[in-house]
Amino acid sequence: MLQLKQIYKVFNEGTPDEKMALSHIDLHLSKGDFVTVIGSNGAGKSTLMNMVSGKLKPDIGQIMIDGKNVTSLQEHKRARQIGRVFQDPMAGTAPAMTIEENLAIAYGRTATRNLKWGVTKKRKELFREKLESLNLGLENRLNAKVGLLSGGERQALSLLMATFTEPKILLLDEHTAALDPSRAELVTRLTKDIVKEYGLTTLMVTHNMQQALDLGNRLILMDKGQIIFMSDEEQKKQLTIEKLLSEFQRIRGEQMASDRAMLV
Ligand SMILES: Nc1ncnc2c1ncn2[C@@H]1O[C@H](COP(=O)(O)OP(=O)(O)OP(=O)(O)O)[C@@H](O)[C@H]1O
Ligand SMILES: [Mg+2]
After folding, report:
1. Which of 52, 87, 89, 101 is the one with CA 20 to 30 A from 154?
2. pTM of the full predicted structure?
């Protein structure tokens, strides 16, 4: 479904700031796979997401979606196939616009151009229905400015908007990291429900190892731009935080004390 073949990405090549952000990335996801991605700061997780979304192009390598080579396809041309939610609750929505207007924009990505703007009665009903499914009472606040919502409410809305186009792939980049534990739990539950409902192929970056173990059917561990450990469905069931940490230590062989703090 999603294939990354021998991806390499170097930033600031030939300068003192040169950084190999991704190398030897080979990853093949089947439809409905839900892969959690962990790794310390700067490991290349967000860069990997940017490759899939088309925000960045690899220097070498290919990206295939449903057997089609999309490596050179621009980000906006992939947008219908890919939903994305970021760490920052401010990033996915337009704060000065209302909930309804934000939803209309997300919805507009699916419709033909002349239907893009404006909110028809039928569409309003659809929005209400979708918002109700979040169980946050947002269906009664359609005219509230999104900037007034709490971080958790905004992330829930972002998640809804990201899936409006019924994408094939969902990219979640630490989307619960900025939330308090109860809101994080709520957004995690919504994530599980939405992924299941639409059978989305999902990549989810998290620094929370327990969350990485609890969610999804596969897991990858990244370090210094490489995937250093990958577990399939069966292996993942047997994984524990201790096993993951010892795997990380075995591969890296050093710096355990600080990396433990970063990873957990
Ligand atoms: N646009 C860019 N220009 C230059 N360097 C970049 C750029 N984007 C990322 N990098 C560098 O590439 C490396 C990988 O960054 P990336 O953001 O993918 O890490 P990450 O695993 O998402 O880390 P974090 O957990 O901190 O979010 C880092 O060293 C980063 O500084
Ligand atoms: Mg990142």
Report:
1. 52
2. 0.89
For ligand 2, the distance from its centroid to the CA atom of residue 51, given in whole angstroms, is: 13
Tell me if 41 CB under 6 Å of ligand 1: yes
Q: Assign 3-class secondary structure to 136-164.
A: CCHHHCCCCEHHHCCHHHHHHHHHHHHHC
**Residue 57 in contact with ligand 1 by CB distance below 6 A:** no
Predicted confidence (pLDDT) at residue 258 exceeds the cutoff of 50: no
CA of 173 to the centre of ligand 1 (A): 13
Ligand nearest to the CA of 86: 2
Beta strand residue intervals within the chain, DSSP E: 2-11, 19-29, 34-39, 60-65, 68-69, 82-85, 169-173, 201-205, 218-223, 226-231
Across-strand partners of 227? Answer: 222
pLDDT value of residue 173: 94
Two tokens, residue 245 = 């940490």
pLDDT, tens digit (0-9, with 9 covering 90-100), for 73-127: 998 888 888 999 988 878 888 999 999 999 988 887 665 544 545 557 788 888 9
